[in-house]
Amino acid sequence: MSFHAIEQALARLNRSELAVPGSQVQLLEKAAKSNSDVVFLDLEDAVAPDDKEQARKNIIEALNDLDWSGKSVSVRINGLDTHYMYRDVVDVVEQAGNNLDLIMIPKVGTAADVYAVDMLVTQIEDAKSFKKRIGFEHIIETALGMQNVAEIAAASNRNESLHFGVADYAASTRARTTVIGGVNEDYSVLTDPDDNGNRDVHWDDMWHYPLSKMVVCARANGLRPIDGPFGDFSDPDGYRAAAKRAAVLGCEGKWAVHPSQIELANEVMSPSEAEVTKARRILEAMEQAAKEGKGAVSLDGRLIDYASIRQAEVLVEKAEQIAGN
Ligand code: GLV
Ligand code: MG
Known about the structure:
Order of helices and strands: EHEHEHEHEHHEHEEHEHEHHEEH
Oligomer: single chain
Strand order of the largest sheet: 1-2-3-4-5-6-9-10
Number of domains: 2
Bound molecules: glyoxylic acid, magnesium ion
Number of strands: 12
Strand content: 15-25%
Shape: globular
CATH superfamily of the largest domain: Phosphoenolpyruvate-binding domains
Largest sheet: 8 strands, parallel, barrel
Number of helices: 12
CATH architecture of the largest domain: Alpha-Beta Barrel
CATH topology of the largest domain: TIM Barrel
Distance between the termini: 30 Å
């Protein structure tokens, strides 16, 4: 290990993160009763400009009046380039900050963006003598944000998670796609012809690089990497496949843009019983190996060593976190 110790953000279950427009009061009520680990109440892109003020009021009321127990609640403020943003922070934190766990900052581009919101939130928390400190979730969804993701991840000790905002990221990088988080047949590999001249097309994941980059920067700063939206909510199989790819890379959760995606996210982002059993067997085998003075042994015909302990511990810790929730 490096001498540099990585401080871990507050451990918070974040397998699913439901997006709810602040303009739709009945959806806010439903969200409070949902099974989502985190719910973010949206003031940004799901709310039309004329509805922003009313949505802010709805969200303040929802934070103060609804029962959010058993889950974490976040508010997605408007971007720092809009005049809505300062009022989003001032009104929501002043009037409902005690009931708010997280603020989600969209389109964050530089560490200075984080600093600006941190300064504002800190002043309000101090003025109100709030006991609880609000954490930050950042959506990495612009070319600038992706370029500066390492600095953003390290910019505040309020930081808890980084989210891959695939829709805006596609727009910002001018990617030639209109889907939200799905695959694109143009991003494929054509195999060389076989002996009969047949060629296969292998569809590939065009989001692999940015998602991986964000995961690394999140983990190097003790933050949770979370995969963003999958727009086609009538395609549970496509959602599950995208969530699995993200989980395999190290993401802890995925957004749900529709309530039907919550259970899918919770399922995929929880280690399976078979995985946890295998992890526990690895830990037992390595404990036995240590007693025998060995650093590496074989289990089921495969090598395991001290790195296997660390991999297995991650799975067991996650299972315990879920069980204890
Ligand atoms: C989320 O905000 C996205 O743009 O994908
Ligand atoms: Mg976005």
